[in-house]
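Human: Here is a favour to ask of a fellow structure person. Comparing notes only helps if you start from a blank page. Give me a protein, with the fold worked out from its sequence. Please set it down just below, with no commentary around it:

Assistant:
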Amino acid sequence: MAKIAVIIPAAGQSTRFGGIEKKPFVSLDGRPVWQRSAELFWNRPEVSRVYLVISPEDRDEFRSRFAHMLAFTNAQVVAGGAERFESVANALAELSDDVDLVAIHDAVRPLTPPRSIDAVFQAAAETGAALLAIPLADTLKKVDSESNVVRETIPRAGLWKAQTPQVFRRDWLVAAYAARASFPGTITDDCQLVEALGHAVHVVQGSPVNFKITTKEDLQLAEAILQSRTPKTDERPRLAFDDEAKW
């Protein structure tokens, strides 16, 4: 079994969320969002350690509010950087030598089905790089930023919406981060870095419930989904309205 380290960046500013608390620290049905994301991984046998990346300005608050939650887990808190890529790089520097694969997962994506994690972990172990994604179902419009007039309708065939976790061979990801400064243009996710080195990244179909909490409405939807889960005899609950879910 490949040993996997999971990096969970939680050092962002949460500017689109609003309110006093940052998104990862907000309560989601009784537990902070970051914990619900981290606990998807920290009891998995193939996960050697979870690295939770926190902004230095949040370290004192995090310690006072949440440090006790990490006492019996394999999680380690890492200081973040000014940008997300710096935060991930800081966590990469902390990895133990025996890690084979590195998974990067959004701290505000707390509803990833365990079966989706199983699938993307397996795909990455077999191919070297994989991510969860879902095919786009909506019509896409390219809109003029000043006039708000539609300039183009973009065909959605072959377009997928990236999710996390995104999972990579450790050596590929480390090399991609080492070369990041040489890549032209804007890099928006870790897959794009690995792709720029010439490695194929394989897509594993994810789930619509694996959405990222960006707004207060997203938080409300996540609350509704958690509260809709019906208890089962096993440890992996099923969403009451998720037709696909066989966790």
Notes: The two ends are 21 Å apart (CA to CA).
